[in-house]
Amino acid sequence: MKTDTSWWKNAAVYEIYIRSFFDSDGDGIGDLNGIRQKLPYLSALGVDAIWITPFFQSPGVDNGYDISDYYAVDPQYGTMEDFRALLAEAHERGIRIILDMVLNHTSALHPWFQESRASRASRKRDWYIWRDEPNNWGSQFGGSAWHRDRETGQYYLGLFSAAQPDLNWQNPQVRGAVKDVLHFWADMGVDGFRLDVISLIAKPEDYPDGEVNESGFADFHPFVANNPRVHDYLRELNAEVFAPYALFTVGEASAVTLAEARKYCAADRHELSTVFSFEHVGLDGSEEYKWTDRRIDLEELKRVLLRWQEGAEACFPNALFWCNHDQPRIVSRLGDKSTYRERSAKMLAAALYGMRGVAFVYQGQELGMLGGGFSSRAELRDIESLQGYDALRRAGYGDKDAMAIVSAKTRDNARTPMQWSAGRNAGFSSGEPWIKPGENHEAINAEEQLKRGDSVFAFTRELLRLRREDPCLSEGRLFPCEDKPGVLAYERRSDNRSVLVVCNLTAEDQRYPCPEGYADGRVLLSNCPGSCYTADGRLMPYECAILEKP
Ligand code: TEU
Predict the structure, then answer these.
(1) Crossing angle of helices 341-353/456-469, nearest 10°?
(2) Where do the domains of the chain lie?
(3) Catalytic residue among 82, 252, 271, 284
(4) How far is the CA of 165 from the centre of ligand 1 (A)?
(5) Strand 56-57 and strand 318-320: pairing?
(6) Catalytic site residue 313?
(7) Distances (CA, A) of 364 to 325, 327, 424
(8) Taking the complete model, does pTM exceed 0.70, yes or no?
(9) Atom of ligand 1 nearest to the CA of 160
(10) Closest CA to 499 of 466, 543, 465, 460
């Protein structure tokens, strides 16, 4: 039994999208040995843990989020021996490993589903969700959420796609099978799980029609997300797996409110360590219907971030993230893509990781990587984006307009190869990469940034060090400072110290007089060396500073 249960409370967890991280064998696809080779890089950045996206056997319709064998490593990512070697070497370096478990659904090729669909009388029929008639819910990746099975004449629920049938968690045999999977990996020594769309596992008793939106279907989230039974299921997993192994768990909680998040995360409820909520990144509407040109409003963003800090405070550490493998890159979204790229990338890091919680850094974010700049359908790889593009075309958009919308929002933005060097394929692979590398890798890459003291990498490393070593930044309560449009400012206070985080979120100068007591403050971190902010209260475009009260 492990005893260290609190290592994660202000940890830095680095997300690796395995397919795009580093290809060790030249097949154009990242792999486990690729991750192992880059452990020194991750140690240099100073991360406490890595979360690796699914590398289990899968037909790859959703790049591994459609698992056909939870006990096998997909050969394109390596072997079980490779994984054991990675685990051992990471642990030697003090880096923990978090696995990404997709338990809401399996692949349609999983033997459980194959058996379930074989006949209405199958012993595993009830392992999935079958109905005679569909309702009007749409699936996340396009079309109906109900998929007709020709052989048996019924419809099965696949909230994401037909290739990803939803498991029926109400069936105790299903929960037993899920726990077996978790035990298997926990026994091997992994340190935690990221639980894919865990807020969706408990389905409602009935399946009422909803209000139809731009997609031509109704959004299923209001009916499925956070069904009260999800908490029973999580308590069961916690008692039998998470607690006995002292595992860190982060649940991906689509459509979670703060009140719901408290239920998932409060220590006395024994469910999860923390949850990803999407309210801040969903301010452009992407959680409801993604394919519009709506953008995130900065003032709303500030309110949401601060509300989650305040609301989580006494209860659980927030999961702090800007980016993941489903979200467009944050500099492309909220920062400046040209003149102030590095400065805005650093400011965005300080704004978020200055807050209380677990810091999640997505691969390439520490370099200020940008989105993919996709210009044609042929360049897209993601099932959601391909279906989104086709739906826009059917709705009457021309190719250029449809591509403009899809290019800004596609998940492929996050999935272009990690930019290791200015060389061929950004140093990601000696073969043909499965997705096109970012055109900007000559300017934005790890090799170049590692040589430079003022890089985004160096800034991120320093920020993570401060979070680790400064009790005020790890434990201190957060107090928002006076509000001014375009500026995010808050104080962190511990018993005898106070630290100010002040950020100009805009490309314009801002006047924000230095809050009382900080005019002579020591600069712990700044993205504008030589700035006169404490003296004149002027913040340059995207300037940020972390100051310690004397
Ligand atoms: O994502 C859940 C999900 O709904 C995302 O599609 C997300 O909300 C959306 O992209 C934001 O606009 C998880 C995984 O992270 C994703 O990669 C999988 O495709 C999905 O579950 C299905 O397993």
Answers:
(1) 10
(2) 7-105+172-461, 476-548
(3) 252
(4) 15
(5) unpaired
(6) no
(7) 11, 13, 17
(8) yes
(9) 22
(10) 466
Q: How far apart are CA 487 and CA 124, in angstroms?
A: 56
Query: Any idea what DSSP says for residue 238?
Result: I
For residues 28, 34, 35, 38, the Cα torsion angle rounded to the nearest 10 degrees is -120
Ligand 1 atom closest to the Cα of residue 104 is 23
Helix or strand run (H / E) with residue 357: strand 357-362
66 in Cβ contact with 164 (< 8 Å): yes
Q: Which two tokens stand for residue 17?
A: 């999208």
* Residue 425 region by backbone torsions, left for phi larger than 0, else alpha for psi between -120 and 50, else beta: left
pLDDT in tens, 106-139: 999 999 999 999 999 999 999 999 999 999 999 9
State which H helix or E strand residue 408 sits in. helix 399-409
Output the six-digit token pair for 169.
Answer: 């968690």
19, 110, 197, best to mutate for ligand 1 pocket (most atoms within 8 Å of CB): 197
Q: Where are the beta strands (DSSP E) in 375-422?
A: none
d(CA 217, CA 119): 29
Structure tokens belonging to residue 288 = 């409801």
CA of 287 to the centre of ligand 1 (A): 10
Q: What is the mean pLDDT of residues 196-200?
A: 98
Please work out whether the CB of residue 196 comes within 6 Å of at least one atom of ligand 1: yes
Q: Is 432 a catalytic residue?
A: no
- Specify the DSSP class assigned to residue 240: I
The number of residues making up the chain comes to: 550
CATH class of 7-105+172-461: alpha beta
CATH fold of 476-548 reads Immunoglobulin-like (2.60.40)
Please tell me if the CB atom of residue 286 comes closer than 6 angstroms to any atom of ligand 1. Answer: yes
Cβ atoms < 10 Å from Cβ of 7? 16
Q: Angle, to 10 degrees, between the axis of helix 172-188 and the axis of helix 229-237?
A: 40
d(CA 146, CA 129): 10
Q: Give phi and psi for 356, each to the nearest 5.
A: -90, 130
In three-state secondary structure terms, 157 is strand
218-275 pLDDT, tens digit each? 999 999 999 999 999 999 999 999 999 999 999 999 899 999 999 999 999 999 999 9
Cα–ligand 1 centroid distance for 141 (angstroms): 9
Give the whole-angstrom CA distance, residue 113 versus residue 510: 58
Alpha-carbon dihedral angle through residues 141, 142, 146, 149, given to the nearest 10 degrees? -90
